[in-house]
Design a protein that fits this description.
This protein is an alpha/beta fold. The chain has a single domain (about 10-60, about 125-270), classed as TIM Barrel, CATH 3.20.20. It has helices spanning about 25-35, 65-70, 85, 95-100, 110-115, 125-135, 155-165, 180-190, 220-230, 245-250, 260-270, and strands spanning about 10-15, 40-45, 50-55, 140-145, 170-175, 195, 210-215, 235, 255-260. Strands 1, 2, 3, 4, 5, 6, 7, 8 and 9 form a 9-stranded mixed sheet that branches. The chain binds SN-glycerol-3-phosphate and magnesium ion (MG). The site of SN-glycerol-3-phosphate (G3P) has 11 residues, from strand 2.
């Protein structure tokens, strides 16, 4: 199983280095790898034809040109698009145009980097895992709650079976806000690490068979963290972008931190 208890807290690049490149693309993963993040995080969803792809929102609209390419398909739900259609999308240009972290305006992202971003495809989970494997890296695969008509799709079985077929059980940490998914994953393959995600204000759960908790950073304190660590459960809060917040969590004893700015967290960890 992936070792979540390292000498220093893990730098987990949220959706890749998402302040420096379009989230959930291989360009973003490559940037996080260059920076030296210990792991990248991605979100996995399912297409209309049952393929696992890397996407955060239920809709393709925010992070691709789906609305321009398929103008009559509003609200561009992932569950209504096939993989062949999704592979036609540009999942990079929106980042340059909307500049979600101000890194284009500040000049942090160079023109050469912007050229690479344009036309970035939405990766399949298999492509994202192979990228991770070839670089001998680690990844947190967050399984999103599925929306109709795909709510009954066996997403956990599909994800676990892909990880097994690529022989990557030591390199993957699964997570989900749907805790039943994580129980299912542990039942299918106990040696794959699994984490329960907690929303802001959500109570810390008891009685789950999991390897890590991923709470919202606002609900993390040293007492809870120490108690969990003592029972062998790692604590990796999300998503922290300011150095003061990072330092507070490190002082509380967390095992890892999710950030859109792995370049900042790496410096803070030292
Ligand atoms: O896994 C940490 C974080 O990614 C959870 O929230 O909405 O960014 O997927 P979200
Ligand atoms: Mg996520």
């Amino acid at each position: 199983m992936l070792n979540l208890f390292q000498a220093k807290p893990l730098c987990i690049a949220h959706r890749g280095a998402s302040s420096l490149a379009p989230e959930n693309t291989l360009a973003s993963a490559r940037k996080a790898l260059e920076i030296g993040a210990d792991m990248w995080e991605l979100d996995v969803s399912v297409t209309a034809d049952g393929q696992l792809i890397v996407l955060h929102d239920d809709s393709l609209a925010r992070t691709s040109n789906a609305s321009a390419l398929f103008p009559n398909r509003a609200p561009w739900l992932i569950s209504n698009f096939t993989l062949t259609e999704i592979k036609q999308l540009d999942a990079g240009s929106w980042f340059i145009e909307s500049d979600p972290f101000g890194t284009i305006a500040s000049g942090t992202v160079t023109l050469d980097e912007q050229t690479i971003m344009r036309g970035q495809p939405i990766p399949t989970l298999q492509e994202a895992l192979l990228f991770t494997q070839v670089h001998n890296w680690r990844v947190n695969v967050e399984i999103k709650a599925l929306i109709p008509p795909l709510t009954g799709f066996p997403v956990v079985e599909a994800v676990v079976s892909l990880i097994e077929s690529l022989d990557m059980t030591e390199q993957v940490l699964l997570s989900s806000f749907v805790h039943a998914y994580m129980q299912q994953a542990k039942a299918l393959h106990p040696a794959i690490a699994a984490a329960a995600l907690l929303d802001e204000g959500e109570a810390w759960p008891a009685g789950l068979t999991i390897d890590a908790l991923h709470p919202h950073y606002t609900s993390v304190d040293a007492d809870h963290t120490q108690t969990l660590r003592q029972t062998g459960v790692a604590v990796n809060p999300w998503t922290v972008n300011d150095p003061a917040g990072m330092k507070r969590l490190i002082a509380a004893g967390v095992t890892g931190i999710f950030t859109d700015f792995p370049q900042v967290l790496k410096q803070v960890i030292g």
